[in-house]
Structures are given as C-alpha cells and as structure tokens.
C-alpha cells in the first residue's frame, strides 16, 4: 500500500478509507454487492478502503469512485472527497498530470459481474405468461370447433321414421301387383286419375287415410266392417293394428306387413 504523503495528518480512524469500510460493514454490504450496484470493480473499492492509491486509476477517476461510494454508503461525499484529496500522494498526482496526453485506458467501471446476478423484469414475465395462456386458449377453441365440424351426426336406418321407411323401402312387388314400397305402379299410365280403396276391418282399429288434396277419407277408430273410399292418389295411410285390417287399391290387395313397424303401419300409397 502506498503511504500517504507527508502533507496529510489523518489517522487510521479519521481517514476516508476507514470511514468507507466502517460504513459498509455497518450497512452489512459486501464488496461484491457494492461493486455490482456501483458498476465499479471490486478491487478498486478495496483499494479505496485500504487507501491503496497505486491500485486505483488516474486521480480524476479514483476521486469519482470515492464520491460515488460515499453516496452509496450514506456518507457525506464532500467530506470524503476532501479527505481523498488530502490523502492522495503528491507523486501520483504529478504522474497523472504527465499522463494526460496518453490514451485513456479502460478503468473497468463499466464492467459488471452478471454471471452470478441475473435480474428479471416481472412485467415482462407476466406478459410472456399471458401470451402463453392466450395461445393455449385459442388453440383449444380451434380444436373444439374442428371437432364439432367433423362429428356431425349421421342418420342411420334406426333414426328413420316409419313413414320414411315406407316411402324409401325397396320395391318388392308381390303377386297382387301392388309394390311393398307404396310407390306408384303406373298400372294405367297416363294422367293421374281418382283411385278407389277398399278397407275391410275384422275388428275395431284406428285407421286414418287422406288423399293428395288433403281430404280425409277416413279417420279415427273404426268398427269392424267394409269401407269403400275414393280420392286422388297418392294416399297417406296410417293404421294402428294391421292384424285387423285388409286393404285393396283399385281392387288389388296391398301387403300391409311390408310397411309394418311392429303392428303399426304408416306409409304413402299410389296406383
């Protein structure tokens, strides 16, 4: 350590280096922490506390370090600066004056040891988390929409009503000449003409028949007997129990069991 010049009269306890060291220890701050906060190399702070002027940069820089260090520790920077000026060796002052024409050398004051000290901006972290959550939310919305579009219900034969089954059933023409599907056989061809229906009930049954004009030919519960009906085809036929009913279209027998769903039948019939 360089001995202060003979023109200084500071003892160890009153010197600026001792005051800096005592204030730092009272504040319970390590040299590493102070160096990181002040952007001053640790060895320069140590040199200030030890008043080791030979290990400090030129006097102007060193004095600035002392003032900043004093402010950081809560000391009077003017007092520290005066103490520094009084303690700084004369021979080093003259050497600094002679070196004013030499290029400035890096003092290390802009260096900071960050490999052991990493700071994160909390607002940036929150923003990143928010973006991730938003991305996940949008991804789930798109996935759900895609699933809804690809999972549309497909009608099966079990979902088709009795009327649709009767209208769409395959044509199975029996010996009577009336198709099992109830589609027109075009027996006479040409223009549509009125047709006759003969309904024979062996027991009471609910029978409802309407023609193409919407006229009700028979409706509701009917007693056993024979019923002759006439209207414009096609006819909409609904029977609650085909076991009690016999049906003929233009004198041709209709196979009701071809339209049956259990004992009930609902279908459209045309010659």
TrEMBL record:
Annotated transmembrane regions: 120-142
Entries under InterPro entries matching the protein: Bact_Cytoskel_RodZ, Lambda_DNA-bd_dom_sf, RodZ-like_C
Cleavable signal peptide: none
Superkingdom: Bacteria
UniProt keyword Membrane, yes or no: yes
UniProt keyword list: Membrane, Transmembrane, Transmembrane helix
Pfam families given in the database record: HTH_25, RodZ_C
Cytoskeleton protein RodZ-like C-terminal domain span: 199-267
GO MF annotations in UniProt: DNA binding
Protein name: Cytoskeleton protein RodZ-like C-terminal domain-containing protein
